[in-house]
């Protein structure tokens, strides 16, 4: 859930809504490209010697179907962004 108590001006709320809408729309664009195939995740981690390392995780490394999990994450994120936008719109009305 989003905390927007620090957003005390109309302009600040509108800018936050704009940021969230952009993120949501990008995720929607990706989500609409289902079904996904050959899904991989690239992780950046700090190694033991304090150096950055890139690690690929592919679907064949996991005990579940990564494309389905990615679709679920995208769907949940889009839903959360919609809730945040609705909350910010309500906050905007109360300013």
**How much of the sequence is in beta strands?**
5-15%
Low-confidence stretches: none
The assigned structural class equals alpha+beta
Helix count? 2
Q: What is the share of helical residues? A: 40-55%
Radius of gyration, in angstroms, nearest whole number? 18 Å
Counting copies of identical and different chains, the oligomeric state is: single chain
Number of strands: 2
Overall shape:
flat
Order of helices and strands: HEEH
For the largest beta-sheet, the strand count, sense and barrel status come to:
2 strands, antiparallel
Task: Characterise the protein shown here.
The protein has 95 residues and is an alpha+beta fold. It has helices at 10-31, 66-94, and strands spanning 40-46, 52-58. Helix 1 (10-31) packs antiparallel against helix 2 (66-94).
What is this structure's SSE topology?
Layout: H1 10-31, E1 40-46, E2 52-58, H2 66-94
Antiparallel strand pairs: 1-2
Helix pairs in contact: 1-2
């Amino acid at each position: 859930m989003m905390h927007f108590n620090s957003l005390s001006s109309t302009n600040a709320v509108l800018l936050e809504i704009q940021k969230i809408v952009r993120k949501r729309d990008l995720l929607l664009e990706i989500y609409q490209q289902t079904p996904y195939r050959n899904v991989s995740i690239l992780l950046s981690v700090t190694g033991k010697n304090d150096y950055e390392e890139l690690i690929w995780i592919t679907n064949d490394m996991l005990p579940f179907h990564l494309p389905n999990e990615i679709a679920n994450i995208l769907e949940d994120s889009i839903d959360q962004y919609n809730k945040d936008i609705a909350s910010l719109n309500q906050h905007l009305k109360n300013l």
